[in-house]
Amino acid sequence: MGSSRQYTPKSVCHALWSFIRSALPRTSVQKVLSTSYPLTYPAPGIHPSKEAHERQPMIRYVVGRLLTALPVLCGVSLVIFTMQKLLPGDAAMAILGPQATAQELTALRAELGLDQPLHVQYWRWFSKVLHGDLGRSIQLRVRITELILPKFKNTMILAAGALTICVTAGLLIGALSGTRPNSLFDRVGIVCTIVGASMPGFWVGLVLMYIFALKCKLLPSTGMYDLRGDGGLLDLLRHLILPAITSSVVATAIISRLVRSTFLEIMQHDYIKTARAKGLSERTVISVHALKNALPTFVNIVALQMGYLLGGSLFSEVIFSWPGMGFQLYSSIAARDIPVVQACVLLTATVFTLANLASDVIQGMVNPRIRVSGGS
Fold this sequence. Notes:
The chain is mainly α. Helix content is 76%, strand content 0%.
């Protein structure tokens, strides 16, 4: 009679793991090892930490998106520098003026490094940008960082106000239209979004200024603060209403249309039908099940519109004399102040890239399938 052998759970687990490693190809084993966790049997009363296991795919996902954003930013800087060099004009002539002699122009070009090869100029400029030095303004003779950072703060205030309006209105209109297709609200919403997406931003701003500032005299027409006011939050909000609405009209129309199409698709899924069959109220079905699954798409749309609001705020800032980066960009283009134009475009592109990076991270947090596939 053969001796009986005692198998512990630990020995069984190790046997299965050895079988899997021998059955799979080497490349598959390496991939499994890179995404799996140590196979150990815990001591009595001790349970492995699931939180640490769930955090690792998210960390890999975030690191991967960061590594993807770095080449994008480098490519954006290269395109901006190249486009600046293709523009007509001479920086040395713009600084010294038309009365400068040839010797003075040659000396200034050597001082600025304009006589160096193009790749040397780019590396010199890019190295300064990495250290926070964006150069000096040709028109105002001040450091660009000191010039545009306060203006960038004002632009972010305007973009935040416009984003609040378009996110709230776009999500509300899109969700109501998508959950009630072919209703009166849906038909009116479709017409309003088509009209809103078709109207130019500067025309909307002029109409709002004429109605609410000139005719009704309810809101101020220009500036960020009233010269006779206290400069408080209420004064800022009164000046912010018209520019924010002007900047958010097109974005609201786009968000509402995309949210509507997303909800139309989600409401046809089987889990929505199952939730209704269980007797859940329509409000619970929409707020708990439909809205949660529409959130990744909504986050992606909002991130894209954030870049549009930063770039599209130029018209609103010029019309309403809002002292932001868009107004500064317009003034610098008119004065051919190329270094300031270059810095404004680079800063806008950087913020747009970071907004998309944040969108990817948030989508990975709300949708585990994205971070697992992206982190593997």
